[in-house]
């Protein structure tokens, strides 16, 4: 049937996914501080693989075809490195600042689409990039004004790089969501990330301490639910709607950062977030609606 999603539901589903993912960010930040980002991402991926894999096997799903496998592997590699860098940086900077810098991803995706898909870059996208770059400079000015530590600066750089990789994974997610359903997307993302990270586990990770095990399981559940909701949304909703929904993460990050870690949102972060969001809005304001996608019931 045609996946024609009512407007309120098209907003509510990804917004719920973002809220759930933000809670997972808070859990993962705590785990990354305690045991390192590598261990936190590795064991969350393995727990997520066990969770999604159990459902996949119970439903007797078929193994995906060669084209889908290539998409799963490609996106898993980009998403895995992006997630690893993001949580490494998140352990060193406030949540609101980290999430603000990820807002660059929808804008960067426009330029990556031009390189990968041959799409024409519009003037609005260039103007939006300039405005958003101003937002990044404002946040950088905040780092200088606050005389941030080297660790904090490196964390900020890691998150910016993670945003570039996340933008690439968004392009692949749009293709992936059309070739596979949310369960398959979620399962193979965890499978690829977990497999790659296991290669470095003997040197970069160890078994999680028992007190961390419930938190890892909780993060895996949250991540699995969020991933399935976002994959469902990317198969149905327009790109510009989803880009707008992403910005709700700033509110959750600011609230959770304050309640869980006692972090306060600085004026520089708020101003930078406003400029980055404005840049993204300018860049996508005249984008034509995405075509309807045929999806199985």
Could you walk me through the main structural features you see in this protein, from its secondary elements to its overall organization?
Helix 1 packs antiparallel against helix 9, helix 1 crosses helix 10 and helix 5 packs across helix 6. This protein is mainly alpha-helical. It has one domain. Helix content is 79%, strand content 0%. The protein is built from twelve helices and no strands. The chain is globular. It is found in: Membrane.
Characteristic key phrases:
DMT family transporter; mainly alpha; transmembrane; disordered C terminus
Layout of helices and strands, plus pairs?
Blueprint: H1 7-35, H2 37-58, H3 66-90, H4 95-102, H5 104-117, H6 123-145, H7 150-179, H8 182-204, H9 213-234, H10 239-246, H11 249-261, H12 267-284
Helix pairs in contact: 1-2, 1-9, 1-10, 1-11, 2-8, 2-9, 3-7, 3-8, 4-7, 4-11, 4-12, 5-6, 5-7, 5-12, 6-12, 8-9
The dominant shape is globular
The number of distinct structural domains comes to 1
Order of helices and strands: HHHHHHHHHHHH
Q: Radius of gyration from the CA trace?
A: 19 Å
Outline of this structure?
Its main location: membrane. Belongs to the drug/metabolite transporter (DMT) superfamily. 10 TMS drug/metabolite exporter (DME) (TC 2.A.7.3) family. The protein has helices spanning 7-35, 37-58, 66-90, 95-102, 104-117, 123-145, 150-179, 182-204, 213-234, 239-246, 249-261, 267-284.
